[in-house]
TrEMBL record:
<keyword id="KW-0378">Hydrolase</keyword>
<dbReference type="InterPro" id="IPR003876">
    <property type="entry name" value="Arg_deiminase"/>
</dbReference>
<keyword id="KW-0963">Cytoplasm</keyword>
<keyword id="KW-0056">Arginine metabolism</keyword>
<dbReference type="GO" id="GO:0016990">
    <property type="term" value="F:arginine deiminase activity"/>
</dbReference>
<feature type="active site" description="Amidino-cysteine intermediate">
    <location>
        <position position="406"/>
    </location>
</feature>
<dbReference type="Pfam" id="PF02274">
    <property type="entry name" value="ADI"/>
</dbReference>
<comment type="similarity">
    <text>Belongs to the arginine deiminase family.</text>
</comment>
<protein>
    <recommendedName>
        <fullName>Arginine deiminase</fullName>
        <ecNumber>3.5.3.6</ecNumber>
    </recommendedName>
</protein>
<comment type="pathway">
    <text>Amino-acid degradation; L-arginine degradation via ADI pathway; carbamoyl phosphate from L-arginine: step 1/2.</text>
</comment>
């Protein structure tokens, strides 16, 4: 019944979503690699998997079909005979592996894996030096020699991809199409390879209109993209998303015709620092007329509206000087919206719980949202505001610096909420 891609709001009844269950890539994290791999700590894998399984089951209990990224990529590669070899080469290109002999050895390892799902999992897990037959006598370059040198060599030949359980970021469903995002950091650009091949070759999801491609030179990440309504999206100007990328995305959406349906793009400039990272770490929609918001951005946010200009292909930009609640109400065609503060008016609770993604929620229906259990202050405030909460255990998942919205990529939602009655229970 629910085929293809269709997302025209953040809170319409969620029907289909893509996740990734954390795997052995977390076991290849070490204190020395945390910084480059964008982690602050090493999650305990078994507990992270239990928490993620609980998250997935909560979604299923709400009637949501749960898909998994690695399974979809494997299905896509199996569907196209030439795709597997091209995928391996593209993944190697993005791996940062320079040594010719090492690249050859890694490719041989990948080719030895018959099962496609196992191949995809290996590419996510990373490649250790002890999995390869590498010795200094085989070195074809200085880069090879450094990999095999007992003093300088690393246990890892290719780093793991631990951020991949945040499926929101590498591509974004907007309407019936996708933005295949150009990630800022080298380690996350490898995630884009999985999305590219899935969206090119998968029998059900391949061939969707593309509003942006990862080959574009300007960075944009999915956590900065919020589909606010059938004809309007919000995009964060953030640490990870550049104004130039928003210019390009807006142009394609605004002039994309009925398949896009977008009439306005709102660009929200937020502070460029790790604790904020993406737009969805400082506010997400929880009901038809309500958002949870980090109070630290109120009064400092700069917002711009992009719409079609008078000439074909042109874009009109104007700065909006109203408060955030007024801007959001106008964007959604409402008289007013409620901004529910993460942590309330407690300055310590607000920054602590924003750091643990108290503002990062996933709506399964208007007024019914998944949240991290650990953000007790914010959750109590949301409940008192009439929001129904599904609390996810989150001691380990939260160590990756992303919440329920970050961990999910909606594939299909029912029509925008203003066309529906509020759903409860």
């Amino acid at each position: 019944m629910y085929e293809g891609l269709n997302v025209r709001s953040e809170i319409g009844r969620l029907r289909k979503v893509m996740l990734y269950r954390p795997g052995n890539e977390l076991l290849n994290l070490s204190p020395d690699t945390l910084g480059p791999l964008l982690f602050d700590d090493i999650p305990f894998l078994e507990e992270a998997q239990r928490e993620h399984d609980a998250f997935a089951q909560m979604l299923r209990d709400e009637g949501v079909e749960v898909l998994y990224l690695d399974e979809l990529v494997a299905e896509a590669l199996d569907a196209a005979p030439s795709a597997r070899g091209a995928f391996c080469e593209r993944w190697l290109d993005e791996s940062g592996l320079c040594g010719r002999a090492a690249r050859r050895a890694v490719r041989e390892l990948l080719d030895s894996i018959d099962d496609t799902r196992a191949l995809v999992d290996k590419c996510i897990e990373g490649v250790r030096a002890d999995e390869l037959d590498l010795s200094s006598s085989q070195a074809a370059s200085l880069a090879d020699l450094m990999l095999t040198d007992g003093n300088a060599g690393s246990p890892l030949v290719v780093d793991p991809i631990p951020n991949i359980y945040f499926t929101r970021d590498t591509f974004s469903v907007i309407g019936e199409g996708v933005s295949i995002n150009s990630m800022l950091s080298r380690t996350r650009r490898r995630e884009g390879v999985f999305g590219e091949f899935m969206l090119r070759y998968h029998p059900e999801y391949g061939g969707a209109p593309q509003w942006y491609t990862s080959s574009q030179p300007h960075n944009i990440e999915g956590g900065d993209i919020l589909v606010l309504g059938a004809d309007v999206i919000g995009v964060g100007i953030s640490e990870r998303t550049s104004p130039a990328a928003i210019d390009e995305l807006a142009h394609r959406l605004l002039w994309g015709g009925p398949v896009s349906g977008i009439e306005r793009v709102y660009a929200f400039s937020i502070p460029h620092k790790r604790s904020f990272m993406h737009l969805d770490t400082v506010f997400t929609q929880v009901d038809v007329d309500a958002f949870t918001v980090h109070p630290g951005i109120l009064g400092t946010l700069h917002v711009f509206e992009l719409s079609r200009g008078g000439r074909p292909g042109s874009v009109r930009i104007r700065r909006l000087d109203d408060t955030l609640d007024v801007i959001l109400a106008r964007a959604l065609g409402l008289d007013a919206v409620r901004l529910i503060k993460c942590g309330g008016d407690d300055p310590i609770a607000s920054v602590r719980e924003q750091w643990n993604d108290g503002s990062n929620t996933l709506a399964v229906a208007p007024g019914r949202v998944l949240v991290y259990q650990r953000n007790a202050v914010t959750n109590d405030i949301l409940a008192r505001e009439g929001i129904e909460l599904l609390e996810i255990p989150s001691a380990e998942l939260s160590r990756g610096r992303g919440g329920p919205h970050c961990m999910s990529m909606a594939f299909w939602r029912d029509p925008p909420p203003r066309m529906m009655t509020k759903v409860t229970g």
